[in-house]
TrEMBL record:
The keyword Nucleotide-binding applies. This is ABC-2 type transport system ATP-binding protein. It comes from the Bacteria. One of its GO terms (molecular function) is ATP binding. Pfam families: ABC_tran. Transmembrane segments: none annotated. Keywords: ATP-binding, Nucleotide-binding, Transport. InterPro entries: AAA+_ATPase, ABC_transporter-like_ATP-bd, ABC_transporter-like_CS, ABC_transporter_ATP-binding, P-loop_NTPase. It comes from Marinobacter antarcticus. Gene3D superfamilies: P-loop containing nucleotide triphosphate hydrolases. Residues 5-234 form the ABC transporter domain.
Length: 310
């Protein structure tokens, strides 16, 4: 199946010589949620701007919805909806007129039933006749999504879509994203809320200093790079890690009542069994144990630091 977004050998160099994107190669599949993670200045927004036709590339080739973004710009852009980071709305328009106008910009015939559905899905229907200047920041963010969906795109870019949105609105927004995916819309999001990427994404890409350093299915990434932590609550306090355990990745808590064993998810059974057997052999009793898995945020931070060290 042809990918919905295909990026080949993409480079972006500014006049002063700064290279914002370095030989990016990326395919995004139809109907998936792809999360692009990276620190500020990594190149996320630059790449999105180029794919959406807002900025020019220095070299490379990109297709969107099967259309080359340079040779067949109009068709490519028609297939894309973009929710940018910055809120930019004409304050005196009503919500209904703003969304309807956005649809018209793409040469689409009026379709009131579609505009109504979008506004209802985003809990904006009651605000349809309100001027934008009267909306809260969260409502304005929803309006930006409504405008991006006005022309029924098959690809939706969400660049930091929940910045400044309260928890309830954020939850509603992600519910809407799930529904869009069910309808076959391909969704590419950037976010600083890494837990959202962990919850929502099918695949995750990590970009750093203009380079894609990793693209992986979320579940496989968590499995490959995730760490697990086993905490053993001891019956008696220890002053130090016993000598028999010094070769293991074991630490003692500050209060001396917990042993903390960190291990790779893939090595779980052998390592834990060995640890528990050794504790039994040397007569250390524990009254409880619990495990905790690495979050995507911890994995992401580890990847970026690993690249820095390299």
């Amino acid at each position: 199946m042809q990918p919905d977004i295909s990026v080949k050998n993409l480079n972006k160099v500014y006049e002063g010589g700064f290279q914002a994107l370095k030989n990016i190669n990326l395919d995004i599949n139809r109907g998936e949620i792809f999360a692009l993670l990276g620190p500020n200045g990594a190149g996320k927004t630059t790449m999105i701007s180029i794919i959406c036709g807002i900025a020019n590339m220095s070299s490379g080739e990109i297709t969107a919805g099967g259309h080359n973004i340079v040779k067949d710009y109009r068709k490519a852009r028609e297939s894309i909806g973009l929710v940018p980071q910055e809120l930019s709305t004409d304050s005196f328009e009503t919500v209904w007129k703003a969304v309807s106008f956005s649809r018209g910009l793409f040469g689409k015939a009026p379709k009131p039933e579609h505009i109504e559905k979008v506004l209802r899905d985003l809990s904006l229907w009651d605000k349809r006749n309100s001027r934008i200047m009267t909306l809260s920041g969260g409502m304005k963010r929803r309006l930006m999504i409504a405008k991006a969906l006005s022309h029924e795109p098959r690809i939706l870019f969400l660049d930091e879509p929940t910045a400044g949105v309260d928890v309830e609105l954020r939850r509603d927004m992600w519910e809407m994203v799930r529904k869009l995916r069910e309808d076959g819309v391909t969704i590419i999001l950037t976010t600083h809320y890494i837990e959202e990427a962990e919850e929502m994404a099918d695949r995750i890409g990590v970009i750093r200093q203009g380079e894609i350093i990793l693209v992986e299915e979320k579940s496989r990434l968590m499995s490959k790079l995730g760490k697990k932590e086993l905490r053993l609550q001891l019956q008696s306090k220890l002053d130090k890690v016993p000598g028999e355990l010094t070769l293991e990745p074991v630490e003692l808590s500050d209060d001396g009542y917990e042993l903390i064993y960190t291990f790779d998810s893939q090595q779980e059974q052998a390592g834990v069994a060995r640890l528990l057997r050794t504790l039994g052999d040397i007569g250390i009793d524990y009254r409880d144990l619990r495990t905790r898995e690495s979050s995507l945020e911890e994995i992401f931070v580890g990847l970026v630091h690993e690249k820095d060290a390299g």
